[in-house]
Amino acid sequence: MEIDPGHHFGADLTNQTQQVRETALEPSGEDPFPERFQNKPRVPTPAPTSRDLTRPSPTPPIRSQHLQAVSDAKGGTDAMAGRMDVARLAALLHETTAADASRIAAAERELSAAADHAGYAGALLQCIGAANAPEAHAAAVAIPAAAALHNFVRNRWPNRLPSQQERESTRMAILQALVVAPQGPIVKLLAESFRIIVTEDVTRAKCWPDLLPALCQAMQESNLMVGKEQSPVKTANALVAVHTLLKPYKYFQNPGSEKEAAPPELEAIVKALLEPLLGMLGILATGTLTAAAAENGDPTAAAAQHNAANQPGNDALLHTLLKCFHHTVAAYMPAAMVPSLQRWLEVLTKILEQAPTFRFEDERVHAPRGKAVKRVIQAMQSLVTRHRRHVDKFLPAVCTHAAALASALASRRLSSGGDSPTPAVQSRQCALCFDLLARVSETAPGYKLLAPNFGRLLESAVYPALCAGAEDEADWEEDEEEYLQKNLPADSDDPTGFNEELYAPRQSAANLLGLLAERGSAGVSSGGGGNDGGKRKKGGGGAAKAKGKKGVSSTPGDVALRYFERFQPPGAPGAPNDPAAQSSYFGVLVAYGALSKWMANHGGKASTSTLARQRILPVLAPGAVDSSTIAGCAVRAAACWALGELSNTGALPEEPTHAALLAQLVDPVGKTQPALRSAAASAIAASLHASCWPKNWEPLLTAAAAAVNDATSEEEENDASSLRALRLITVAAEVAPEHCGAANLANPLAAALARAASSRTPAPPATLPPVVETALEALIAVAQAAEETAEEDEEENDMDDDAASGGGGPPHPSLVSLVPHLCAALRRAWLPTAWGFDAWNRGGQTDMEGEPTGAPVACCMGDCSRLLSRALRWCPDAASGDQVQLAQLVAAHASLLPEWDAWEEEEEEAALEVLDDVSASFKRGALVVRDVNAMRPLFESYGQFIGTAIDQAPALGCARACRRSHALMALAANVGGDASAGVARKILGAATDRLRGLVSPDLPVARPLVLAASGALARGVGPAPGSLSPNVASDWASGVARTLVTSKDDLSASELIVLASSSLRALGAAGAGAAEAVADASARASAAESALRAVLGLRDLRASGGELGAGRRNAEEEDTDDSDDDSDDDSDDGSDDSEDFERDSDVDSDSDQEGSSPPVDEETEAQFLARYAAEARKLAGADDVDPDSGDVEDADDGSELELDGVMMGPPGSEARALLNWLQSRATAADLGALAATLQAHPVDGLSNGVSNLQTVLSSIPQAAGAGAGGGNGSGGPSASSGSAGVSMDFGGLAL
């Protein structure tokens, strides 16, 4: 391709600018912007002034009148400045650069006050215009003025401007200042201000019709168009403005739409600017290629080169122009771009072709050129991903040039020394080349382009990028953890061409290798196999492996494995052990890890196991690699990483693998080279997750715990490698609780972890360091594993299933032994006695020795709550609780909860579960209250926490808090004292407030709110229903009735009792009688309906055997049915096992013979856009989610509510109380309202049209022992039995 250097683009811009002006002046003509983009009719101005950069005018004013000098540009802001004292403003701006903080603060206060006055932006622009002035003092305030203007625009545009009349003049003046400003920070600040205005006024409001003609004219009249001496407008600045204008369009404007055309504004910009700038692209690209050739010694290019000193500036212009093109096509393909797209692609392809020859010796000179090449590759990526059909013709050349550039850069990196590392821009280019090839290979046609030359690509580009170079040692020494994350990531994603850009060449090359291997074995026919190529056998099908003439597989994965066999592992007989050999084998190990997914799907377990034994494990053998060097440690780390990746294949030999990895974990070299220990820990964690387990777990867990306890300094114990090793305990406990939870391992592990946490806990109020957080997390995992093991042990010994969790029987002895360790981990963080103090000093002061004087802060409350919960469950008696200071820990936990507002699902649940465990521990005597008054702070803290959660937490957190509120009220009732009323009052207020604030009473969160409020009203010490305001009482009562209707088949006995008791109390049928009843007629009617429905619901539940303790209605039957279904399924599955095995065997044998696998479904562009749009809609709606909406089922575990303190009698007493109220206390209005309700909404328990309500209620049996009042303050059965013959008018019903 030849680029015409003689093409002059000034004429193109001149013609295009004139067209834009003319169409802007024709009312019936086509406007470059859509009609809605205009806010007023445009008319020609008689004589342009310096106020505007351009106005749509038939005369070309910039060169002759507009920007003749800096003073002209400065005068354009005089009117805007108004009465603003520019000199005073300049002095204030100069003060902001002072060294004295007080002077800076005073100046900023005055500037903030001045920003509220009209003319502020104009005055700042006058100060910015002085940047080119000869006076040093005037030029010194230009940068502070540009920064102040940027802050002003960012905070106030467009709705908080001092004067909306200044909007048009300000934005045009900013554009004018931008195109004439000197290069440097001023241009960047003005461009950012311009971007904010463009985003608001062009992209969103579409109210700047003069912008496009102004930019066209500015570009036409810029210095490179008409000569540097004739115009102050700089072409580079004008291009920056164009780039800023295009920036918003690199993303979809309406991402929720599956198919979106290019916006009309973008079409107009492309037509008016990018089309005529295509000539500039050719000239700039020719200059760059000529300069690069001249630097490489080409005499013809050297003779043709002009003014080499200005070449970096021209390269920067090319980079900016390429950014404009990239942002134009990143999301859309404007129709105006299609005709000239081929020309753009020709230039981009030519640059990419010559890029391997570009030198990068002087970063100041060559950085713009390197960035231009990087932008070329990024633009090609966008075109391949979004607009492939437009670039199909160029893909062969693009793939060839990208592979050549990646090869050149990878080889250059290997040959560079540690003192001259590869520049960052070239590393970025190399990574982008691999990413570009990966995106090309995502489709079958793209894969067919790469597959025939895979062997050459592997040998020349991919493998050199994987090998270790001299700069790897420098990166390792600088930051080992960052090196691992960038080169040996522990959580690598699946190979895909649609990955985020990986930035590191090694990761990108590994990603490409894995992707090509997968594509080659997934039913994609390549038509060849690279250097080992050959024709596929006829009739083999598209899914068969390509075979060479000798039957050798030529798929990329097999080709790669054969290529790597030429490199001997270090330590093998006859293998070299020099740095070059270690560097080469480092790349081999990384390649094995990159091929792990392919090997899991297509490699075969036997071959993978052999590869691990012969090619990877020998590297980790003692003495195989010199561990005293960084290169040797890096090779060992790569071997660990490869084993971790290959563990997902399920083919690794377990014992040799874990023995080798454990040796690296405990190697003393790990103290000086923590990255080796990190790599080993990550590999062990990956193998454990993949069910590759050691036979003996004790050495592994002991070594993991010792990684922290053996640390000799704070820096070492908080080192990432130590934390990774410590997390191995968490992983092991999660994946294999039967091994880690055994008593012989759990107890010493818990002791070691508790010691690690307590000994490293800093003095309050400091927060917990990472090592303590990690130790607490591991301690919880061990405790959970021990709990699961104890439960299984008790099941095997036919013990009570609830014993392990603090149920009816004593805790398991193995769990009791863990309680001291759990409490030891918490005492030093929470209790002042652990630091030798009687109480915390709440003043927050510290003494000279730095001893603790502040109170603890709420830190890691989720993990700490889990530890406290288990200590409460497993503490056997009060004496044991006193030994571990369990009561003091509960009080400390309660005092910290009000400061904690993290409402994540798991964290909040852990904190709330403590309330259940505190109540249960109190009931069984593990917690003893010796001073009732001392419990007041605890109840106040817990009550505040529960009330805040009910009021502020999202729906699920609110439901969980409501559920735990019953445990708190039950605990307060059992303890006694006057704190119980305060707890009930807080819960009632929070629940009713949120209930009344719901947008719909049918939201799922309404039910737990109703139950929480009812639980407070059902307790005699709580607020009386009559104390509620009429609106609150009515909303609560109607909520109870709605809950009984909508959830009638899903309410437990305890929930029905709470609803019945609170409704009866609201009617005056319980407690103090009429003194507590609600007075509002609507509330009384709903309460009567609720009481009746709850009483009948209890009758039905008890008739079916669902008394207290049975949980949900029909829960046992459902569980039985489920178990029957499961057993049936198991038997069915068992009968088919042999058939399934035979079918699987047939499939496996076919796979082994042909290497076939189901073809991969390629994602079409339409599918990609649909997925993108769905995700965008999801993200767009994430901020608008109603906190009251959402599912709350996870908050209810199906257990009964705690009823301590609830006004209730024996079973059946609720019916007697309701009957007594109907006969003796209900008014005629109450009876009429109830009759109307029952007629409108019939009750299932009242059949036959509710012919005789008295008969129904009287027929409900009452348990023995129900005295007068039945325990609920109402008349007993004797009070109503004598009035059976009394007839009352009940709305047509006989009572």
TrEMBL record:
UniProt keywords, alphabetically: Nucleus, Transport
Domain of life: Eukaryota
Record's compositionally biased regions (Basic and acidic residues): 1-10
Any one cellular-component term (Gene Ontology): nuclear envelope
Chain spans, region Disordered: 1-77, 476-495, 522-554, 785-812, 1105-1164
InterPro entries (UniProt xref): ARM-like (IPR011989), ARM-type_fold (IPR016024), Importin-beta_N (IPR001494)
Keyword RNA-binding found: no
GO-annotated biological processes: protein export from nucleus; protein import into nucleus
Residue ranges of every copy of the Importin N-terminal domain listed in the record: 107-180
Transmembrane segments: none
GO molecular function: nuclear export signal receptor activity; small GTPase binding
Major subcellular location class: nucleus
Compositionally biased intervals (Acidic residues): 788-803, 1116-1153
Subcellular location: Nucleus
PANTHER family for this protein: ARM REPEAT SUPERFAMILY PROTEIN (PTHR10997:SF29), IMPORTIN-7, 8, 11 (PTHR10997)
Protein name: Importin N-terminal domain-containing protein
Origin organism lineage: Eukaryota, Viridiplantae, Chlorophyta, Mamiellophyceae, Mamiellales
